[in-house]
């Protein structure tokens, strides 16, 4: 009986309405509430205002972080979310380059051909990780955990004693939170991250190119509008994620160029000294 009333479309609609409108209240241990007036507030990535329960007035209070002019739209923050998260939870993608919390999740894996594959998997397992892991890339760079994972992936058998600390740092369970450095394999680790970024960039580019050529069914105008809308959202999301990857590609290439030119300088200096003493 219930199933008849609650068909899947109604369920999806209710789920969407609930999740795009509920408010988490930090002072009530993150409990959620539906707050009728507050669900009219739209999100803006640049504001830092949230809703919370206020004990003294026993109500939900909204305090703005700036002055607004009469007639100006007042915004709220739905939280520091990536464009992908905003699309999934709220059905929109902020304008490209306006979301400082935007990030793209990239998957990285140990190489199956690695002589130390088993030892590395064991080290990762001890810290709750597996042979393939996802890490968020932001326009400002990549997390220390990813750098540690990349070090583990490229480290040779001679560094097996460091596998444990690399895996711990990749899982964010390392005791020291500072940037770990293994200069002897830094170039390889950065190249490994760059290869993943570039392979993703080419997938995004293929999708974006294909989306320009995608044929939409024009026999059903109602569905056409919805398809055009959904397609635009997908294009907006992919464009913003690819932009983050392009930025990382630029930073990685520059860092690799610096390392390589430093190595070249050291080599030239060494050759120069050798010639001097010949
Ligand atoms: C809590 S409601 C906000 C009020 C909503 N605009 C309304 O008229 O009922 C959340 C929904 O508003 C829309 N929304 C909020 N912020 C937005 C933004 N910056 N850009 C586009 N749509 C937004 C999305 O559809 C989202 O699911």
UniProtKB/TrEMBL annotation:
Q: Which terms are listed as keywords in the entry?
A: Methyltransferase, S-adenosyl-L-methionine, Transferase
InterPro entries from the UniProt entry: Rubisco_LSMT_subst-bd (IPR015353), Rubisco_LSMT_subst-bd_sf (IPR036464), SET_dom (IPR001214), SET_dom_sf (IPR046341), SETD3_SETD6_MTase (IPR050600)
Q: Which GO terms describe its biological process?
A: methylation
* Source organism superkingdom: Eukaryota
One GO molecular-function annotation for this sequence?
Answer: protein-lysine N-methyltransferase activity
Q: Which Pfam families match?
A: Rubis-subs-bind, SET
Check the record and name the PANTHER family matching this protein. Answer: RIBULOSE-1,5-BISPHOSPHATE CARBOXYLASE_OXYGENASE SMALL SUBUNIT N-METHYLTRANSFERASE I-RELATED, UNCHARACTERIZED PUTATIVE METHYLTRANSFERASE
Name of the protein in its database record = Ribulose-1,5 bisphosphate carboxylaseoxygenase large subunit n-methyltransferase, chloroplastic
Q: Which organism is it from?
A: Nicotiana attenuata (Coyote tobacco)
Q: What is the lineage of its organism?
A: Eukaryota, Viridiplantae, Streptophyta, Embryophyta, Tracheophyta
- UniProt lists the gene as RBCMT_2
């Amino acid at each position: 009986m219930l199933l008849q009333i609650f068909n899947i479309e109604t369920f999806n609609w209710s789920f969407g309405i609930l999740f795009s409108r509920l408010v988490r209240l930090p002072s009530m241990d993150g409990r959620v509430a539906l707050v009728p007036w507050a669900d009219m507030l739209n999100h803006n990535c640049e504001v830092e205002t949230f809703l919370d329960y206020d004990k003294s007035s026993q109500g939900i209070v909204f305090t703005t972080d700036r002055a607004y002019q009469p007639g100006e739209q007042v915004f709220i923050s739905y939280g520091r979310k990536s464009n992908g998260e905003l699309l999934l939870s709220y059905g929109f993608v902020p304008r490209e380059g306006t979301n400082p919390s935007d990030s793209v999740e990239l998957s990285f894996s140990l190489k199956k051909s690695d002589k130390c594959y088993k030892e590395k998997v064991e080290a990762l397992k001890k810290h709750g990780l597996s042979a393939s892991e996802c890490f968020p890339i932001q326009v400002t760079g990549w997390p220390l955990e990813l750098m540690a994972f990349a070090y583990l992936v490229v480290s040779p058998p001679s560094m097996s004693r460091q596998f444990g600390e690399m895996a711990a740092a990749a899982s964010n369970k390392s005791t020291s939170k500072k940037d770990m450095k293994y200069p002897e394999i830094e170039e390889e680790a950065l190249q490994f991250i760059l290869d993943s970024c570039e392979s993703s960039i080419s997938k995004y580019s293929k999708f974006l190119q294909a989306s320009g050529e995608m044929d939409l069914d024009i026999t059903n105008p109602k569905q056409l509008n919805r398809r055009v809308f959904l397609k635009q959202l997908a294009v907006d999301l992919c464009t913003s994620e690819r932009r983050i990857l392009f930025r990382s590609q630029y930073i990685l290439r520059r860092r690799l160029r610096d390392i390589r030119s430093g190595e070249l300088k050291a080599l030239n200096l060494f050759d120069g000294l050798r010639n001097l003493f010949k």
